[in-house]
Amino acid sequence: MNDSGPSAPQPPGLLDSLRRALLTAVELLQVRLALVGVDLEAAMQHWLRLLVWLLVAFFTGALAALMLVVTVLIAFWDTHRMLAAGVITAVLAGTMLISLLMVFRQIRTRPHPLATTLAELRNDAVTLEASRALATAHPLDDAKP
After folding, report:
1. Would you call 142 helix, strand, or coil by DSSP?
2. Where exactly are the structural domains of the chain?
3. Nearest-angstrom CA–CA distance, 56 and 59
4. How many helical (H) and strand (E) elements, i.e. helices and strands, does the chain have?
5. What is the DSSP string of 59-112?
6. What is the pLDDT of residues 45-83, one digit of tens each?
7. pTM (2 decimals)?
């Protein structure tokens, strides 16, 4: 008796399993590439904000310094103009050094450009290793006598 009607579903073959694994890998790669894009955009925004604030600080600081120099020199022109010019120079040089130290601190404490992506890839590697170890474990190893 040949039953040509609907039969029980066949377990997926090797090609189906490979196709599903490949699709999963492609989806994982897409997600990771999107995460790389987000990380790069965040790094770019950090550097852009830093640059804008540096330009604002430089421009306003230069104008303030110029006005301070003119004001002090006018005030001490008749009595101690050289001392006033020296003090102004020392104050401006000190302010410049402090500003540069702040910039270097900002550069040192910047977030790593791909920190989130690298962390996710490490998590993926740990998960894959754990699933591989689980798949290779012999089912009878866990059985109790």
Report:
1. coil
2. 20-117
3. 5
4. 3, 0
5. HHHHHHHHHHHHHHHHHTTTT-HHHHHHHHHHHHHHHHHHHHHHHHHHHHTPPP
6. 988 998 998 899 889 988 888 888 888 888 888 998 888
7. 0.43
